[in-house]
Amino acid sequence: MSTLSPNVRKTGTTLADGRDLFYFDDSEPYLSGSQTRRLDDPRPLTDRYAPVPDETGVNQPMTGPTMRYDVLTGEWIPHAAHRMNRTFLPPADANPLAPAKPGAAYSDGEIPAEDYDVVVFENRFPSLMRVPGVEDVETAFEGEDMWRIRPAAGRCEVICFSPDHTKSLREVTPRRMRTIIEAWADRTEELSQLSGIEQVFCFENRGQEIGVTLHHPHGQIYAYPYLTPRTTQMLQQARAHRAATGRNLLRDVLEAELRSGRRIVLEGEHWVAYVPMAARWPLEIHVAPRRDVADLAELNEAERDELATFYLQILNMMERFFPAQPDGTLTKTPYIAGWHQAPTGEGREDLRLHLQIFSFLRSPGKLKYLAGSESGMGAWISDTTPEKIADRLKDIAPEAVAAVAASTDNNEVTA
Amino acid sequence: MSTLSPNVRKTGTTLADGRDLFYFDDSEPYLSGSQTRRLDDPRPLTDRYAPVPDETGVNQPMTGPTMRYDVLTGEWIPHAAHRMNRTFLPPADANPLAPAKPGAAYSDGEIPAEDYDVVVFENRFPSLMRVPGVEDVETAFEGEDMWRIRPAAGRCEVICFSPDHTKSLREVTPRRMRTIIEAWADRTEELSQLSGIEQVFCFENRGQEIGVTLHHPHGQIYAYPYLTPRTTQMLQQARAHRAATGRNLLRDVLEAELRSGRRIVLEGEHWVAYVPMAARWPLEIHVAPRRDVADLAELNEAERDELATFYLQILNMMERFFPAQPDGTLTKTPYIAGWHQAPTGEGREDLRLHLQIFSFLRSPGKLKYLAGSESGMGAWISDTTPEKIADRLKDIAPEAVAAVAASTDNNEVTA
After folding, report:
1. Would an 8 Å CB–CB cutoff place B236 in contact with chain A?
2. A367 — contact with chain B (CB < 8 Å)?
């Protein structure tokens, strides 16, 4: 499916360097999408595919990022060294995701509109990029058959969740969250159709503890031209499970979690949230639909509607997991939230949509570091148990649900 | 091999809670190992296998850490929740790795001796531990066949590189480094023979940026009761390579690096250091012996001798990779250094010893964070290229070599 909901209007435009930008507006008069309020992007940006000077100053054709096959692990590693040629870095105090100032001739940020609801645009310094004319073929590196190199011909997009830079995603209204889901589904569907794209990953990095320097609420969407290591692993496990049982692994995981109930932390009509049986992070929740669905684009209206509220409830649980400060201020839990979606091609029937949301935080001010065992060997060590995590989440779930209900009420009053 | 070098004497003792401790002394009168200078450990520690009170205060048999099989990824995840029952945490300003104060009746730290050269002991709060009487079998969890759980029946040891807490490992003399190599080799050999141990990992986490709070120079040795994800991947790749070519993957990687020469940063008679062709970290070096060797215990005397100097040269290159401060002080490069060793059992002939040393630092004060793509998808993105890393390392190699030579001269004078 993924026809846009009638409540959302999508309007595309092109930025000065040739990148795509899409507005997703959910309120009359669909402001950022309306021609009268939309601005052109008159920044003096060089076309993104323009030749770039080499070390000696001579212009060379832009070839884009490449990736190399790590023969020790079987993984592709994009080396986005071209990102270092960043010429127009915004000043440190600038917010490139803010709307243009009212009355200004144009925005000095990325979004040429005085206001917006949700907006998606191609990343200006992407790790993955297809450059027209660059053939997407694998070649031997340094003449060694064993060493392979390829263009990192994917696509990186940024999604702004709100025009208000002071907000966190958990503070948007369910109505706005519904629009974000619509945008995720739309991008998943469109990016899946691009040549060479094997999977689409919608995710949010939240918190300066994980390196986020731009506090404006935003996420990212990566369209990978290869199957990522985690997806490869899951696919391998799912195929072995299907061979042994004839069943879908992720469906069986959900059913086993439901049978046990011990780690279920939130349930809706269409969605279930649980701490996975072998959680590796100090705080980790998986969210899965009850119906077998490959990706966000396949969700129906009822599932999307419920998810808008459910997702905000989960984010509010994350924010309440650690004790509040003495004055009642919630701990800003740093987290990574990522949607695992089935590949666009082979293996699609073996995987199943689910959200993985997790935090590096062990307690306020104390991070789990990925040191020798994790970073050197990939061998995780957890200092807690999934059941302890689930117990705490169950305790705070009612408060999180109430917080979202209050936000809905406010929204209805002011709408 | 791994008979101890005649210049090193090993002396074992037992700490108050039953843990093993081994002194590796390299100088007359082999002080920490001599009966007259060694102290008993009279701390009032509870036996480490003693029953522990449950939530209601009733003592229960100590069962040790368990690990669960993550059916989504095929990885074992130890959940060391018992570590939270830490009863005797040292005060924040204490250094449990310091030798006892001269004349004191006993140490208030872990090492009951007034001085030592190199010492290894079992970690007091291990993530992996075999508890006598606990059978090492896999069982179904919550009655689900798909969900498996097992004792995390491995072993975690700590190695102190120097009695001087102000030193970094790169500042020890080659002679002391030689003793450390001897200790690593000895522990690798002994731990490999323990029942159920599948691989031994000697590593060092260096720097508070990766969560190290104890600045005393030390490393860790993990004996895993399973093959780690990275080793599993390498084994899979090595087997595919052997099937396709009849050759050893890691040997072919070394030979291809030598043929290219582009990323070789240091060469000795027995050892080669290079930036791997598909390096994923902002700074990453692999060090491999020229001879096919499965693990540290298989190194011969000549290889160990050269490695002592070679290893220190590599650490000195790490410390000079980023620009020094204006007053000439070197940047304390945070790093993880880990020895990839062949498994103790199946697959041993397909892998080959190599050191992987890498840093999260992109530039002074700026870390690479493992955010959504890396932590959620396992999909690495590098912002540099292996060749750029190698160029910088080649530039600073002579200075690093000179620094170690100066340290050797000083050592010879004072010895």
Report:
1. yes
2. yes
- Residue A260 with chain B: CB contacts under 8 Å: 142, 144
Task: Specify the fold of A229-414.
Answer: HIT family, subunit A (3.30.428)
pLDDT of residue A364: 86
Is residue A14 within a helix (H) or strand (E), and if so which, with residue range? Answer: strand A9-14
Instruction: Write down the architecture of domain B9-224 according to CATH.
Output: 2-Layer Sandwich (3.30)
The pair phi, psi for residue A166, each rounded to 5°, is -85, -15
Rounded distance between C-alpha atoms, residue B400 and residue A234, angstroms: 44
In this predicted model, what pLDDT tens digit does every residue of A54-74 receive, in sequence order?
A: 878 899 888 899 999 999 999
Same fold yes or no, A9-224 and A229-414: yes
pLDDT in tens, B315-346: 999 999 999 988 989 989 999 999 999 999 99
Please list the residues that pair with A9 across neighbouring strands. A25
Nearest to B381 among A127, A252, A259 (CB): A127
Whether the upstream peptide bond of residue B163 has omega within 30° of 0, thus cis, is no
Q: Is B373 part of the contact surface with chain A (CB cutoff 8 Å)?
A: yes
Q: Given the residues B82, B216, B218, B340, select the one marked as catalytic.
A: B218
What values do phi and psi take at A181, rounded to 5? -60, -40
CB contact under 8 A, B146 and A256: yes
Greater confidence (A367 vs B143) lies with B143
Question: Which of residues 278 through 337 in chain A touch B, CB cutoff 8 A?
Answer: 278-280, 336
Domain range list for chain A: 9-224, 229-414
Nearest CB to A378 within list B205, B230, B237: B230
Please give the structure tokens belonging to residue A4. Answer: 């846009």
Mean pLDDT, rounded, of chain A = 90
What is the value of pTM for the model shown?
Answer: 0.94
B218 is catalytic: yes
pLDDT exceeds 60 at position A244: yes
Do A79 and B253 make contact, defined as CB atoms within 8 angstroms? Answer: no
Beta bridge partners of B68: B77, B149
